[in-house]
Write a structure and sequence with these properties.
heterodimer; A: alpha/beta; FAD/NAD(P)-binding domain; 16 helices; B: alpha+beta; 10 helices; 13% strand; binds flavin-adenine dinucleotide; binds FE2/S2 (inorganic) cluster
């Protein structure tokens, strides 16, 4: 239920609805886009970024919150680790079980590799499970991989790496089919054709969805298949450091049991990083749509062995995070709501942007409206603009919202907001890491033995990812990396295991004079628990055993 | 961020009981944020924090009402006098199978999940489901081999496991439903000819030239092509 004082604005939204059903907003041109982004997009706030002081991307601008972690201290003291006692000896180690990790593990095993899948929380506790809107693939007759390519590059501000985009659009239809053969239920028309929708920045209807539970559907099927194929896995066991060999190849990892603090050493011919994104860093104080474990661990781990990162100066703020009610602040209002026809309108009931522009543009426009006092203030002081969901049923017929958006109806219904009759209040929320670990089309990073796939890698989306291209890239590059890693692991001759890179890293931090001021990383989990004041006596701190893991 | 300076509203505190111990927390939090307010750093029982992953299954009742209730901690707002416990893990059965080797029939379901036959219709599963799905009904659909209906009715399942935890007969409705959805997707959904055609086109090199042209294109030309590309309408208005 909305507070009474919002009633006046809601009535303006209702009153303009009939007019807006006919009204179209012009597309935003190159120059207008540049001006909008520079003035309003968080990526362009100078104080939000700083140059990295150490590592392969030294000197490159990076969000403060990410930079602090990339420059972090290792959690392990190499002198205290016994590299002679290997607990798991495998061909391929996959780190992280979202969509990218699960598909990499399936393909690695299919290609003959003895595979171990390790993950921080449960299998499938990942950003993938939250994906609602859908997955892109150019498979209709008026569409083509080339059109998909052009949309993706334009959306990415023309910075995308061409070979990666090519791989993305070429593999897309076969990914959809692969998932269907594993039992994913795509939304279809009665004649069997896919029921496809449009999306921000996409010039064709190309979004394949499974109601508004697309990522859940993809993830629960893949997780089930991981079980069925009896792939070895370890849950609640995040990687805290990669292990190398004396030839400079990545050769395994150290994991920690989150509940007992016990370490596990894995030796692997190849390692696939699939740790997802960084939303839980709450960059610039934004709330996030991301899952609990989205803390940029993979970037940190890869950076420490010398892997290059790309486009770290850009994050994606989803234009429509919930601004009200506070219980779901920052949680995703799927782009599918706009795809189905809902417009964004300000407090006066006026449209201010073509709702299906790429996300960076729409997010900037939402921020502009609020800064220009055309937003609504919530009781807790958040600002937002209206997303006029009831339009969907007017445009597409009664019952469309209930059929296409059950998760959204349910989520807002819990707070007595009926999105079939009332608009939703939204504001940008931290959603996606556009950049990441640099890879080639096989998922190989700049360090031998290390592959990467999914949200932790960068390049394919340039500086702004389009809707539906992420739940596509995780399968495209997850599968490619799984296959390539299995092939690589067959050939590779590992030398003696070493943690020398950790020693070198710490020396570099010391030289830069930042050892003391940087946290222990990877972060593993955010800390939302209210903490008692520190009461420990120094002697107590020294004598207490390490006990439960100190995730902080 | 979007915050505007405002006088802090007066916070109303309410009592909740975490595993029997009383805490005072501000009204309006979810069960999950209330646990964190009490000082718990969650490791289990927390995933997407948005109602999609089922990690945060919670059982509760109220101080003056012993009736057990079930919900997702990340979505449910706290109420005064709640007695809360989260279910960190539940040992429920999952049959192993090769999807390529089974048929979409009632026999397959019963072979993999024989406990299905023992359902006596108590409807506890339905009452337990935080997604408000008609669990018992789709279990009876499963028994009849109506796989399509199971897929349809169970679709919004987040696999929190509460139905299995409460079933007196040891059924695992969420895993049975997953099997049905996979069978539906694999065998019963109508095939998409346009998808097959497109894959064949890509494999035979039909799109290579176009893609190659784009990859070699100058930035200026790419910008022009992007700006001039035609855009298919997102929807056609109902008349
Ligand atoms: C709410 C939401 C909605 C979205 N909607 C869409 C959409 O409609 N369409 C679309 O294309 N994209 C969407 N996205 C983006 C997309 O879902 C994600 O980018 C993508 O699923 C990421 O997949 P992934 O496998 O790379 O990472 P994830 O799915 O996040 O998986 C990463 C895994 O790695 C684990 N991990 C992390 N650190 C460690 C460590 N140190 N050791 C071991 N394991 C670790 C994590 O716990 C997790 O299991 C959405 C994202 C969100 C959050
Ligand atoms: S944490 Fe995922 S459903 Fe609650």
């Amino acid at each position: 239920m909305y507070p009474a004082y919002m009633g006046e604005s809601i009535r303006k939204v209702e009153a303009s609805r009939e007019r807006r059903l006919e009204e179209t907003r012009p597309r935003v041109g190159d120059q207008e886009k540049a001006a909008l982004l520079t003035e309003f997009h968080p990526d362009f706030i100078k104080e939000g970024m700083r140059e990295l002081l150490v590592g392969p991307n030294r000197g490159e601008p990076t969000p403060n919150e990410v930079a602090a972690l990339l420059e972090g201290n290792s959690r392990v003291n190499p002198d205290k680790i016994n590299l002679g006692k290997v607990d798991h000896d495998v061909d391929v180690l996959v780190i992280g079980c979202g969509g990218a990790g699960a598909s990499a593990a399936l393909l690695a095993q299919e290609n003959g590799a003895k595979t171990l899948l390790v993950t921080k929380l449960r299998l499938g506790d990942a950003n993938t499970v939250g994906a609602q809107a859908g997955t892109q693939a150019a498979d209709r007759s008026n569409d083509s991989p080339a059109i998909h390519y052009l949309d993706t590059i334009g959306g990415g501000r023309f910075d995308n790496i061409p070979e990666l985009v090519e791989a993305l659009v070429r593999d897309a239809p076969s990914v959809i089919k692969w998932l269907e053969e594993l039992g994913v239920n795509w939304d279809k028309n009665p004649d069997g054709s896919m029921h496809e929708l449009s999306g921000g920045g996409a010039s064709r209807l190309r979004l394949h969805s499974a109601r508004d539970y697309t990522g859940l559907e993809e993830m629960r099927v893949l997780r089930d298949e991981v079980h069925n194929r009896c792939i070895d896995y370890l849950e609640f066991s995040p990687v805290i450091e990669l292990v190398m060999d004396d030839k400079g190849q990545v050769a395994g990892a150290i994991l920690v049991n989150l509940e007992t603090n016990e370490l596990t050493l894995v030796r692997a011919g190849a390692v696939i990083m699939a740790t997802g994104g960084a939303g839980r860093l709450h960059i610039q104080g934004f709330p996030t749509t991301n899952h609990y474990g989205a803390t940029a661990d993979g970037l940190v781990l890869a950076y420490r062995v010398g892997a290059e990162l790309i486009f770290m100066d850009t994050m994606q703020y989803h234009p429509t995070g919930a601004a009200y009610p506070v219980q779901i602040l920052g949680q995703l209002v799927t782009e599918k709501v706009r795809t189905l026809g809902a417009q964004l309108v300000n407090a006066e009931g006026e449209q201010f942007i073509m709702s299906l522009e790429p996300r960076d543009v729409v997010a900037s426009a939402n921020i502009r409206e609020c800064r220009h006092m055309k937003g609504i203030t919530t009781p807790t002081g958040e600002l937002g603009v209206w997303l006029d969901s009831p339009m969907i049923d007017l445009l597409r017929g009664e019952g469309t919202i209930a059929r296409e958006l059950p998760a959204m109806v349910r989520q807002f219904g819990r707070y007595n907001i009926d999105i079939t009759k009332e608009p939703m209040l939204v504001y940008p929320t931290l959603h996606y890491q556009n950049g990441g670990i640099k890879i080639d089309p096989d998922g190989a990073t700049t360090i031998p033995g290390l592959f990467a796939a999914g949200e932790c890698m960068g390049g394919v989306h340039g500086r702004n990812r389009l809707i539906g291209n992420s739940t596509l890239d995780i399968f495209v590059f997850g599968r490619r990396a799984g296959k390539a890693a299995a092939r690589y692991a067959r050939e590779v001759k590992l030398g003696a295991l070493t943690l020398d890179h950790v020693g070198k890293w710490q020396a570099e931090l010391k030289e830069a004079g930042i050892t003391e001021s940087r946290p222990a990383t990877p972060l593993l989990l955010p800390n939302y628990a209210r903490q008692p004041d520190d009461y420990l006596a120094d002697y107590a701190r020294k004598t207490l055993s390490s006990g439960q893991i100190k995730v902080a | 961020m979007a915050k505007q300076k405002q006088v802090a509203p007066e916070v109303h505190m309410i009592d909740v009981y975490v595993m029997g111990k009383r805490y005072q927390v501000p009204e309006g939090l979810t069960i999950m944020t209330a646990l964190e307010y009490c000082g718990y750093r969650l490791i289990r029982g927390c995933g997407c924090r948005a109602g999609f992953c089922g990690a945060c299954a919670t059982i509760y009742n109220l101080k003056d009402d012993s009736q057990l209730r079930y919900d997702l901690a990340c979505q449910k707002t706290i109420e005064p006098g709640m007695y809360l416990v989260q279910i960190p893990f539940f040992p429920s059965a999952k049959a192993l199978y090769n999807l390529e080797e089974i048929e979409p029939t009632a026999e397959s379901l019963l072979a993999l999940y024989p406990s299905l036959l023992t359902c006596f219709g108590c409807n506890t599963c339905t009452k337990t489901c935080p997604q408000e799905l008609e669990v018992m009904w789709f279990m009876s659909d499963a028994l009849r081999g109506d796989i399509r209906e199971v897929a349809n009715r169970s679709f919004d399942c987040v696999m929190c496991g509460l139905c299995a935890a409460r079933c007196p007969q040891g059924l695992v409705p969420y895993n049975i439903a997953l099997l049905c959805r996979r069978l539906y997707g694999r065998y019963l959904a109508p095939t998409s000819q346009h998808l097959e055609d497109r894959i064949a086109g890509i494999e035979t090199g039909k799109f290579d030239a176009e893609l190659e042209e784009l990859e070699k294109m100058s930035q200026d030309e790419l910008h022009r092509r992007y700006a001039e590309r035609d855009i298919e309408p997102a929807y056609t208005k109902q008349s």
